[in-house]
Amino acid sequence: MSLESVNRFRDKDMRENKEIERISKSSKWLSEAMRQYK
């Protein structure tokens, strides 16, 4: 594997992790809101 492809792969990984983090934060917020609503 060339260094360039490794970097691209890691960059893609980072972006996906950020996306997952963002989604889990919003779902956590959503479950909090649901609990407040009940």
Task: Explain what this protein looks like in three dimensions.
This protein is an all-alpha fold and 38 residues long. It has one domain (1-37). The protein is built from 1 helix and no strands. The chain has one helix at residues 3-37. The radius of gyration is 16 Å and the shape is rod-shaped. The model has no long low-confidence stretch (mean pLDDT 90).
Let me know the average pLDDT.
90
Cα(first) to Cα(last) distance is 53 Å
Number of domains: 1
Helix content: over 70%
Secondary-structure content class: mainly alpha
| Major sheet | none
Q: State the low-pLDDT regions, or none.
A: none
Order of helices and strands: H
Q: How large is the radius of gyration?
A: 16 Å
β-strand number: 0
> How would you classify the quaternary structure?
single chain
Inertia-based shape: rod-shaped
Topology:
Blueprint: H1 3-37
